[in-house]
Amino acid sequence: MIARQSGAALLAALMLSACAGGMIPPSATGPARPIPSGEATRPVPATPRPTLPVELPADPALDKGTAAGVGVTRGPDIASLIPSGERARVALQAFRISCPTLMKRTDASGLTKGSDWNNACAAASSWPEASASEFFSRYFEAVQVGDGAAFVTGYYEPEIAGSRTRQPGYEVPIYRRPTDLIDVDLGQFSDSLKGRTIRGKVNGTKFVPYDDRSQIVSGTIAGRGLELAYAADPVEFFFLQVQGSGRLNLPDGGVMRIGYDGQNGRDYTGIGKLMKDRGLIQAGSMQDIMQYLRAHPAEGAAIMNENRSFVFFRELTGAGPIGALGVPVTAEATVAADPKFIPLGAPVLLSLDRAEPAGVWIAQDTGGAIKGANRFDSFWGAGARARGIAGGMSARGSALVLLPIGSAARLVRP
Question: In the record, which residues are listed under signal peptide (predicted)?
């Protein structure tokens, strides 16, 4: 998700222990300008559409780690299910920019081939956005992957106070990726390790783990010219690292956008679950966690260091943030999904017990905590509203994947 740390969802990443480690996976002077608190938005309740009965068991000959392996059920006609309005319009925009990559990708889910998307992508290039819902209903058909039971969290692009140079009130280093951080493809050494990668550094004649968060925070890589910028608040910066990209509001009123440029290879620990298990917080939302960390700065610093993972950044100067599909993610249109179950670039129709995320989204991103069929992370953009919704997003309901018309016939066994 925005190539963020393990690509993880904010709330899920804070609560869960994502596999981002061995396997790659307030200032004294105040900020430059006020940062909205982003208090959790009160949910708007809704009644989700029921999931479909699974008509046939999955094919035992297929890999259960893919959509084709867990089974696909043909969905209903979608013409009456796609809400018109802004979400459909921005979803069409997001689908349109996904098309060049979508038509060339190998679909790990087993649901589609690149050529399946040609007609829809050709039509999307000139389709009027005012009738976006009609576009989706005309060029797509629905399938349910597995049991169709969806769980949706949220993420956003944080805005925090920062400076390009170190100065009073801006003391927290934001580091570039170190040149001695090395990725090792273990598949080159053994066929049994194909697809597995570790990160570390060379120490003499040995390959060893890279410095963990506590070591980096204490200054082990300081003074090497890796300082990209400086944050005003270590708690805000910690949360930006979980997201993997964000905006620095600079003292002169400018904005510097930064994006994920690697991680130290250490295991990710979700501090929300850790704190909840210790009785330090009750609900476990982003806002609860931040309140505790600020109220107990010494203990809070130690808790943050229990997450040994540390994220490095680069400055972003073009469109973005960039998702795992390699295109800019779109606020209130992009979801992160598991590409083994959802083709990256495909539309997804969500019906949930919260009204805010209901409708059509485009799978343009991935995340370390976003694993399995019907698990999604919704992107809400930047600003107070995005932070308020994403920080408390937890919705359940049903999901349908929209595939190009004709492709479902290959998937549903007679």
Answer: 1-20
Whole-number Cα distances in Å, 137 to 52, 142, 360: 19, 9, 11
pTM > 0.85: no
| pLDDT for 63 | 62
Buried residues in 103-115 as b, exposed as e (16+ CB within 10 A): bebebbbbbbbee
Q: Which residue reads 């492709």 in tokens?
A: 407
Q: Give the span between the Cα atoms of 181 and 210, in whole angstroms.
A: 7
State pLDDT tens for residues 139-172. Answer: 999 999 999 999 999 988 889 999 999 999 999 9
pLDDT reported for residue 14:
57
- Is residue 149 within 8 A of residue 398, CB to CB? The reply is yes
Query: Rounded to whole angstroms, what are the CA distances from 298 to 38, 78, 113?
Result: 24, 54, 53
Helix (H/G/I), strand (E/B), else coil: 150: strand
Q: Check: CB of residue 27 under 8 Å from CB of residue 232.
A: yes
pLDDT of 71 reads 87
CA distance linking residue 258 with residue 157, whole number of Å = 10
Q: How many CB atoms lie within 10 A of CB 140?
A: 25
- d(CA 33, CA 31) in angstroms, rounded, equals 5
Alpha-carbon span 376 to 334, nearest angstrom: 10
Other beta carbons within 10 Å of 30: 13
CA dist., res. 362 & res. 402, Å (int) = 10
270-277 contacts at long range (C-beta below 8 A, 24 or more positions apart)? 270/12, 270/13, 270/14, 270/15, 270/16, 270/17, 270/18, 270/307, 271/14, 271/303, 271/304, 271/306, 271/307, 272/11, 272/14, 272/15, 273/14, 273/15, 273/16, 273/17, 274/303, 274/306, 275/303, 276/15
For each of the domains in the chain, give its residue range(s) and CATH number, in order of start: 5-40+155-316 (2.40.240.50), 67-150+322-380+389-410 (2.40.40.10)
19-46 tens-digit pLDDT: 333 333 332 223 333 344 446 678 899 9
* pLDDT beneath 70: ranges in the chain: 1-40, 55-63, 284, 320, 412-414
Please enumerate, as own/partner, the contacts of 90-93 that have beta carbons within 8 Å and a separation of 24 or more.
90/330, 90/331, 90/332, 90/333, 91/132, 91/136, 91/330, 91/333, 91/347, 91/359, 91/360, 91/361, 91/362, 92/124, 92/127, 92/129, 92/132, 92/135, 92/136, 93/129, 93/330, 93/333
